Amino acid sequence: METTSVLLHSKTIPFSFTISHNNSRKFSFRHSNKQFQSRLSNNNFLFGKSLKPIKKQAELPFSLYQSTSSLKITRTHLLSPPKCSYSGSASTDGSQNHPFLKPFKNLSLDKLKATFLQLTPIDIIKWSGILSIAIAATKWTVNLVLNPFFWMYFSWTWLFWPWFVAISLAVYGLYCFYKHSIGEASIFEQIAIVTSVFTWLTLVPPAHFNGYLQGWPFVFFFVYHYFFFFNVSVRKRLYGDYYARPHDPKWDLHPPRWSRLLFCVGVMVGHWLAAFEGPELHLIPGGWSNVGIWILILATLLMQYNSTFYLAKYSEKVVVPIAVVQFGPYRWVRHPIYSSTMLLFATYFLALRAPLSLLFVVAVCLMYYGQKAKMEEDLMIETFGEKYLEYMGKVRYKFIPLVY
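and the corresponding structure tokens:
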């Protein structure tokens, strides 16, 4: 045990130990495989640490001795031997056994230098040529994919974007909508419904009349998604998921089905009319003439976000209000969420330079949202009474400040 204790708590030093077993075999522990020579004696001191005398030496499987004579040490390096310690437990660092780190385990600067020194001029020319060809092919592919005339040509053949992708997405979107109607759609399938609808609102109509896509349709495809997720992200922020919570069904206000159907058809027709009315996409001016469009986009997103935030803040389970909201956009209009939706459509039509289609879709939205707002206000008066009537007296406009 004393010998084991010495080995466990010792540091590696530049001379050897010799362990003899039955005076016949000798084993040598040498630091860094250096050749050391020493004579062994019966000294009971090892590194200045006293060892207890061994009474029954014959019972031990081996004997340990340290030489006090002169040592002959052969060193082939200038640096002093590194200090190391012994640990009786396995390492808990999993990074040493990580499969992705194995190629880099023995990587060193000397090996990299040796690898580069072995490169011949022919190797350098070969790898430089491969790298140049790869860069040129990537650049050519990117230019081809982003070239609108490439898509214009292939869209006529019904083989590439947008028709093949758009029709496949529409079919899958209808399947997901069927599952949603029976309450079995997953989160991914609900997102597929939204993506399918926005594709046929913002991408397919201008692609049909122009033969290719560029500019504002791509921008608004992502803006529509961002706008939509302001609504559903409230549940994620409050509850950690997107699923609706059980609540009083009296707050699930929906106009008649025919009214909802006409609204959906009217919005779709309005977007197609905008693509037909507007000029070809490459004729729509860019640059500073579109600063107003970007300002309207930001205003739309901010209005939608703040309206949803304040409504959720003063509501229970997102859709059940517990107080009359009079902050944020609710200081100017009584239904700012509907106003932001109309402003989003109006901004898209302005970007495509389609004013007549803009008037059409605003009229469709006013008829539908006016009907829905009337139902909500009646319920708010029934719930909050004089408080909501007082709020209606302060904020007289439903959707458009100073107009309606």
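(Above: one complete record from the training split.) The beta strands are 17-21, 25-29, 36-37, 45-46, 49-50, 63-65, 72-73, 315-316, 320-321.
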